[in-house]
Design a protein that fits this description.
- This protein has 130 residues and is mainly α.
- It is 82% helix and 0% strand.
- The radius of gyration is 46 Å and the shape is rod-shaped.
- It starts with 13 loop residues before the first helix and ends with a helix.
Length: 130
């Protein structure tokens, strides 16, 4: 049992065959060594010539996404703080209204007590007893 030869000695395709074998070995090595995600990034690097152009685009996109998220977070935080300040001011205004009402009612009660005392004195002086 003879094994077939892996090398084909054709004068025209010898160089092409070597390149094909090297390319096939590289692909096999990538499949064995790299997981799927890193394989995609390696394929992207090969497509861009390995200059890191895809990494630069990815970093720029990530930075842009981070910046937009950061700005949105700041806007939402500012809106929430503004709403809390508005609620505090509204609560303070309501408390001021309630306290002024209580003071006016207290004054009214004091006046009613004075009037009651005056009426009782007048009734006691006039001789009308209960």
């Amino acid at each position: 049992m003879e094994r077939p030869s892996l090398e084909v000695n054709l004068p025209d395709t010898q160089e092409e065959g070597k390149l094909y074998v090297v390319d096939s070995l590289n692909n096999l090595n990538k499949l064995n060594v790299c997981p799927d995600d890193s394989q995609r990034s390696l394929d992207e690097e090969e497509n861009t010539g390995g200059t890191g152009e895809s990494m630069a685009r990815s970093n720029t996109r990530n930075q842009c996404l981070f910046f937009v998220t950061f700005i949105l977070t700041l806007i939402i935080s500012l809106a929430l703080v503004s709403f809390v300040i508005f609620l505090i001011i509204q609560t303070r205004n309501k408390m001021d209204q309630i306290s002024s009402r209580l003071l006016s009612e207290k004054n009214n009660i004091e006046e009613l007590k004075k009037i009651n005392n005056i009426i009782l004195k007048h009734l006691n002086q006039s001789g009308i007893k209960e």
